[in-house]
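Extended Data, record Sigma-54-dependent transcriptional response regulator PilR
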Amino acid sequence: MRARILVVDDELSMREFLSILLEGEGYLVDQAENAEDALRCMGEQRYEMVISDVLMPGLGGIELLSRIKSESPETAVLMITAFTTAEQAVEAMKLGAYDYIGKPFKVEEVKVLVRNALEKQSLVQENKRLKAEVQERFSFSGLIGKSKQMREVYDLIAKVADSMANVLITGESGTGKELAARAIHYNSPRKGAPFVAVNCGAIPETLIESELFGHSKGAFTGAFADRPGLFEQSEGGTLFLDEIGEVPLQLQAKLLRVLQEREFRRVGGATSLKADVRIVAASNRNLEEQVREGSFREDLFYRLNVVMLRMPSLKERAEDIPALVEHFYKKYSLWTGADEIITPDALKALFNYPFPGNVRELENLVERCVVLGSRVIALDCLPASVREHTGAPPASGETEIPDEGMDLQVYLDNLEQKLLVQALDKCGGVKKRAAALLGMTFRSFRYRLAKFGMDEE
């Protein structure tokens, strides 16, 4: 997108000259002959930059600068005047002007100043955007879902985030363990320091010690210089040790020492280094079973397991599927504002499917549909493995007919009402989602609600 610049000067010849110069550089340029006209333009249009004369009839350039910075602080302002004074220059810079140049000026000087000002502004805006994105992504709102299981996750993160306690996150692969670890970090006092993640199972056993603790020059063949490890890189922040159950026993003893003494040594090093690092570990294995088998140290397990956070599988929180589908659709799709993101039969298929890969598998599935060009996720764009999995109704036990008999219609009506209420409860009251959960059309669902006088509720 081309930057838009507003040129403000009471001299027509100067406005025309700067407009031609800037348009030749590829910018969009508007003109204003005085400060009042400039403020009117800014009320109608957003400008990345304003180039203004200082001395103008009526409201002067310095006053205009003050108004711009008050109303649109992100707009870069370049001041130009034929009567440069040190006092004016200092005042302009204090008020937030990007720079201040005198007439006559060199054409190349103006080009460079404008280019640099816009580049700086772009970097500032991008930095703000990235910070906001990180904050949003790893805040509690970034963990998608309103099910009871996810609310329990949010509550526990809120309680442990401010502490220094080590956290052990458990759960199946694809449930979002690293996302939970990041949420703990970015909602803690350490959020301004590094968050460093490492998959312990992806590092060869011969290299993992050096990777975690670093090494000194000459510690082994190929160690040509000192190299800091992940503990040093995450100083003051959080170190996330994913798949902690893959760490070999020999290294577990050294990890235990770091947790106990808050210090470590590089491989081949002679001095101890302090470790101001919070440890969050995760595993999809049963570490207690590994302790019993002797493949994981019991003392390390208890050091890591000060607080245990269990991430539920997607099967356990199936009511979150519609919200997750919407989130991933918006993430990958160029189509915005669609009335319908997924058809009822496709959503029903997702509810029936067990999702062995959990949330990660659902994300990949939605991305696949978008890549294949689907504006609406329909049944025919889902993989055959999902379409053909019919699922099975939950076991509810057998119902026996009492000796005195029963009214079958009353029994069925009561059961139907209970299922309608459960569906609405699971879907947060959203009727379209509840209808899909029960495998019926929205019209049919509304008819049943009206049948039992539940439509207003």
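Summary. Residues 107-138 form the longest helix (32 residues).
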